[in-house]
Sequence to fold (239 residues):
Amino acid sequence: MAIEELQLSCVREVVDITKNASFEPRYMQLNPRGVVPTLVDGEQVLWDSRAIVRYLDQRYANGHLWDAHAEETKAWIDRLHKFPLMLLSYSVWVLGKRGEKSADILADKVGRAYRYAEENPELADAYRRKAAFFETFAKELGDAQHVASAIETSRIVLEQLREQVRARRWIAGDRISFADCIAASVLSRLVDLGLLDFWYRDRSDRLRAYFDRLRGRDSYRFVFVGDPQIPEHLRLRLP
Ligand SMILES: N[C@@H](CCC(=O)N[C@@H](CS)C(=O)NCC(=O)O)C(=O)O
Fold:
């Protein structure tokens, strides 16, 4: 979404994490964390969405989406970037009503990472870190107290966001920023999960109105709705 907002063009390749494509050695060589997204720009290889957007923003867009904004907006970028979307998603997919993924899927990822570590000695450290990440993640997910506390913290962030956009078009005011792009994916995923979506059900809610503004952006429609490259099973399901 940020790339679209910056009016940059790129060649995109879908890395289907539901099929563990991010575990492939070819991908881990580029991005030793084995997570999406990764940006390749000539000699530069970057990962972590914040590092990618900051780089693109500084190099090609004069800080339009991030650096030219006030500290308050930058704080929102941090706050939303930390939103525990993966934990909340798995809490619905594994523990919640949808039950799409079982806890075995996490055990499979741990086993897979150790197996790849054996087969690819040059990437062994990266694969062991990935295994350790999923071991810790599975423990956190199995800890009801931990999940409940993440949900509560997230609820507070949503209330703060609702307050922030009460009298503003975007988080920064008149101009869209990277904070709004992160908010777009957080809010979309929550609606898709049916978790912490209390604001979505009331059309007059300020947060719902803000979400509808985000959904009206060409960048949102392109990435979340109309992107022909995204296979059906990876698409968001918004009621
Ligand atoms: N902080 C990172 C998060 C990246 C991340 O965790 N990506 C997840 C999907 S949202 C992923 O690629 N997971 C792959 C996997 O778990 O194997 C960023 O903003 O880029």
About this structure: The first strand starts at residue 38 and ends at 41.
